[in-house]
Design brief:
The protein is an alpha/beta fold. The protein is built from 20 helices and eight strands.
Length: about 575
């Protein structure tokens, strides 16, 4: 009997996974609690709302999502977007502001559930791997620069990555040495433990040491910022008060933007760790899981949530095997709300910043960008040069889109570049000139040792033929013809589709070649190709279609005589 697609990461659970999942859950919990408090403040709601959001988000994503490692919870990008959406709607009414923040999570959840049910995950296919890599690098750098002020104990500046970085540089003179010391020591603990004691949860150790240091030396009285007071208790469950149907309609449009950001970041993080662990991600289930997480968060008095790049890095780095780690985090967060809020009140902000930086620094995959650049430079002269260049430029556009314009505009830049890249590649198919070796017809660009017959041009278009590439294909075939060419054969086996525009192009090409006394024939066409071409001919002399290239060229003399120079136009 087939298993239901719920809690799929727990199917076939092995006892050996229990320890790493629990350790990873403890480690993520130590990072999530203070981060959730901070991100709630960014969203303009009380800090405890971040914890309210985390519990249902973790449980419902584990139930519905497809990633074994993704951690879902409040995040800086969607928190900031939530504040930007809610502020003009709520005005100065603090209670209404909190209610609308929960309503935005509900609207985002409904949008995600609908998108998942309608199988709109194919939208992710328009974001190429180079664009996704550039987006992740840009987002990771943005997260890091957002944590650096906490590390130095200086004020954080608003703006894009470069404005924030310049703000840090300008404020270096205000660095709090105690804050910087505890931050650097925390960073050293996390990175050092990861390198030399990989079985020890370095992030959790750094958090505990930071709390102990504050308690022992009274660092909070000496200028070291700490998390501060956290309200205890569980939230109310249900639809937020003072929010009507019209409010949900107003929020539905902005909720799509929140969903898009959360989906992109979560999908990027999920794919990154799925690739490392050798399993696949279902984009439709990711949409559904994100929708369920947001709906649960909104109904639990929370705020918008999404897949977290930084906490997923912590989870993966701590050795998580399944979403049991997320369920452990949820259970510990409930205990925190009930009994342990006081524990995190003494956590230094600098330690928290160090844990986040250590988690995401491995996602600044400059080596992958260098590989894209190296492929571009090595293949500039080859038939793949333009595609390789486009991959590298797309990755750079996505990365700098995030760094310059923030997450949502940067994502739109990346999606736009992905679509442009798709159209560009489709409009510039490789048109191969073929030469015969034995019974095979091979691309002379890849086999330069082969010499084609001067009077016979056999070409292969490595793409479907349609309106976007028809003119380029026609120009390329014309350019390949020489004074000696007597016959052009299009090997259509690699062109599985043909539209009316391309069919008319082939007729125009046949007529143009005929004026130069060159015959034009088609070999090995698929059924759809011939049907569209036949419809387009509409009484015109049909183009000859042959079962093989050899059949198409059978009546061409084996030893061609020179063709008289044509005086036609």
């Amino acid at each position: 009997m087939r298993s239901l697609p719920v809690f799929t990461s727990l199917h076939g659970y092995q006892r050996a996974w229990l320890r790493p999942d629990v350790v990873a859950g403890l480690t993520v919990w130590a990072v999530l609690v203070p981060e959730a408090l901070a991100y709630a403040s960014i969203a303009g709601v009380p800090p405890v709302v971040g914890l309210y959001a985390a519990v249902p988000a973790l449980v419902l994503y584990a139930l519905a999502g497809s990633s074994r490692h993704l951690v879902v919870g409040p995040m800086s990008a969607t928190a900031a977007l939530s504040a930007a959406i809610i502020t003009p709607l709520a005005g100065a009414d603090g209670g209404h502001y909190i209610a609308l923040s929960a309503a935005l999570a509900i609207a985002t959840g409904i949008a995600g559930l609908l998108a998942g049910l309608l199988r709109l995950g194919f939208i992710a296919a328009f974001i190429s791997e180079p664009v996704l890599k550039g987006f992740i690098v840009g987002l990771a750098l943005t997260i890091i620069i957002g944590q650096v002020p906490k590390l130095f104990g200086v004020d954080k500046h608003d703006g894009n990555f470069f404005e924030q970085a310049w703000g840090v540089i300008r404020n270096l003179g205000d660095t709090q040495w105690r804050t910087l010391l505890i931050g650097l020591l925390s960073l050293a603990v996390v990175l050092g433990v990861k390198r030399w004691l990989p079985l020890v949860p370095g992030s959790l150790l750094a958090v505990l040491l930071g709390i102990v240091a504050v308690q022992l030396f009274g660092l909070d009285d000496k200028g070291v910022d700490i998390v501060g007071h956290i309200d205890a208790g569980l939230p109310s469950v249900g639809l937020p008060d003072d929010v009507g149907f019209d409010d949900y309609l107003d929020l539905l449009g902005p909720a799509v933007g929140v969903l898009l950001i959360g989906f992109a970041e979560g999908l990027g993080a999920a794919k990154t760790y799925a690739a490392k662990s050798g399993y696949s991600i279902d984009a439709n289930r990711e949409l559904f899981g994100l929708g369920a997480a947001n709906l649960g968060s909104g109904l639990g008095s929370g705020m918008v949530v999404n897949g977290s790049l930084s906490k997923t890095a912590v989870n993966g780095g701590a050795g998580a095997k399944t979403q049991l780690s997320g369920l452990v985090v949820a259970a510990l967060t409930v205990l925190t709300l009930l009994f342990l809020t006081g524990l995190f009140e003494k956590l230094p902000e600098a330690t928290l910043a160090a844990v986040v930086i250590a988690a995401v620094i491995e996602l600044v995959d400059i080596a992958a960008l260098r590989r894209l650049y190296r492929v571009w430079t090595q293949l500039l002269a080859s038939i793949y040069g333009r595609a390789a260049r486009a991959d590298f430029l797309a990755a750079m556009a996505a990365m700098f889109g995030v760094l310059l314009f923030d997450t949502l505009p940067g994502l739109l830049v990346g999606v736009g570049v992905s679509v442009l890249l798709l159209v560009y590649r489709a409009s510039q198919p490789h048109v191969a000139a073929l030469a015969k070796e034995g019974s095979l017809w091979l691309d002379t660009a890849r086999h330069p040792d082969l010499t084609p017959r001067p009077d016979l041009l056999v070409v292969r278009v490595e793409s479907a033929l349609f309106f976007a590439n028809a003119d380029n294909v026609k120009t390329r075939i014309n350019d390949l013809c020489t004074e000696s060419t007597r016959l052009v054969v299009l090997d259509a086996e690699t062109s599985p589709a043909l539209d009316v525009t391309a069919a008319e192009m082939l007729l125009d090409l046949r007529n143009a070649l005929a004026r130069k006394r060159i015959d034009f024939r088609i070999a090995r066409s698929v059924a759809q190709f011939g049907e569209v071409l036949g419809s387009a001919e509409a009484g015109d002399t049909p183009i000859g279609i042959y079962p093989t290239v050899a059949a198409a060229a059978a009546d061409l003399p084996e030893h061609p005589m020179p063709r008289p120079r044509s005086t036609d136009g």
